[in-house]
């Protein structure tokens, strides 16, 4: 029997078309990205049952510059494991024409877990200001940013507010309630919370010089359900003068999801999962399924 190999796949997607990244019931009209990933793996005809384990959940309308997942693939007897490059190319072939792309694949140890071995996640939220209404937004930016209808945001106040999130806190106020709430600790360590000028040279140079993009970047070991969207909405409210820094501090300290102001959460379309990080030592390949082993297996077969 051939060796079962565990792969870590790095993938990106345009989230507007999907119900989110997680698998949804097959009868549902709009499926999750995971459904398409698993279908692509099945088309490789593995002998084992296919299950893709996604590291980082994203909701409907949220995009990923790079998400990760692991999957086990065992080929038929006498067939060597896929090399990392071949697996990447094969999955991309079977994912056409979906707006999902496998960036790379890595062979990992048998006990590696894409979710539990991740040491941090980084999200970026894209804002744009300087436009009167959504009809002025370039069509190629639709569903890729949040139009905040303000000529100017007080970015200095937003920067000061973002610093309140840094460090280890109970972020209960900044999570939305769902079925997982009782089982997940609300205590998270925020490693980065920053606001910097964004960049879309083509749109600003050729279409509207009044447009200004802003990138809100958050990095943590992990995040709570809709935490980034709530933090983003609160920071924008500070920049607009609708929320004071003392009030934001109170919201953080009250540790109550129901205390978060209604309609302050940012919409999903400006949110991108940028990166999932792992320790290099965790990514070391298992010896019997290393690229060298694969090459030796192929030579024996030939």
From TrEMBL:
Boundaries of every Pseudouridine synthase I TruA alpha/beta domain copy: 11-117, 161-279
Pfam entry (one): PseudoU_synth_1
Catalytic residues identified in the record: 59
GO molecular function terms noted in the UniProt entry: pseudouridine synthase activity; RNA binding; tRNA pseudouridine(38-40) synthase activity
Residues engaged in binding substrate: 123
One of the GO BP terms on file: tRNA pseudouridine synthesis
Catalytic activity: uridine(38/39/40) in tRNA = pseudouridine(38/39/40) in tRNA; a uridine in tRNA = a pseudouridine in tRNA
The EC number(s) this enzyme carries: 5.4.99.12
UniProt record similarity statement: Belongs to the tRNA pseudouridine synthase TruA family.
Protein name, per record: tRNA pseudouridine synthase
């Amino acid at each position: 029997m051939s060796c079962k190999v565990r792969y870590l796949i790095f993938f990106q997607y345009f989230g507007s078309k999907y119900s989110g990244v997680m698998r949804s019931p097959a009868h549902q009209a709009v499926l999750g990205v995971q459904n398409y990933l698993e279908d692509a793996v099945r088309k490789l005809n593995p002998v084992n049952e296919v299950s893709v384990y996604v590291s980082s959940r994203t909701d409907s309308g949220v995009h990923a510059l790079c998400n990760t997942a692991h999957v086990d693939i065992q080929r038929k007897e006498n067939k060597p494991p896929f090399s990392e490059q071949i697996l990447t190319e094969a999955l991309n072939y079977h994912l056409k024409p979906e707006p999902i792309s496998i960036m790379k694949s890595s062979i990992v140890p048998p006990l590696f877990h894409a979710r539990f071995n991740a040491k941090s996640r980084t999200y970026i939220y894209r804002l744009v200001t300087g436009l009167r209404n959504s009809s002025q937004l370039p069509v190629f930016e639709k569903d890729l940013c949040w139009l905040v209808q303000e000529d100017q945001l007080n970015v200095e106040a937003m920067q000061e507010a973002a610093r309140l999130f840094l460090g280890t806190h109970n972020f209960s106020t900044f999570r939305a309630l769902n079925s997982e709430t009782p089982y997940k600790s609300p205590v998270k360590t925020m490693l980065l919370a920053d606001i910097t000028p964004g960049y879309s040279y083509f749109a600003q140079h050729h279409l509207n010089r009044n447009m200004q993009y802003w990138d809100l970047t958050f990095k943590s070991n992990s995040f709570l359900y809709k935490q980034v969207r709530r933090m983003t909405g609160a920071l924008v409210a500070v920049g607009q003068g609708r929320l004071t820094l003392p009030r934001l501090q109170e919201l953080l300290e009250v540790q109550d999801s129901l205390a978060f102001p209604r309609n302050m959460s940012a919409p999903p379309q400006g949110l991108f999962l940028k990166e999932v990080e792992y320790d290099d030592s965790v990514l070391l390949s298992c010896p019997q399924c290393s690229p060298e082993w694969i090459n030796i297996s192929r030579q024996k077969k030939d």
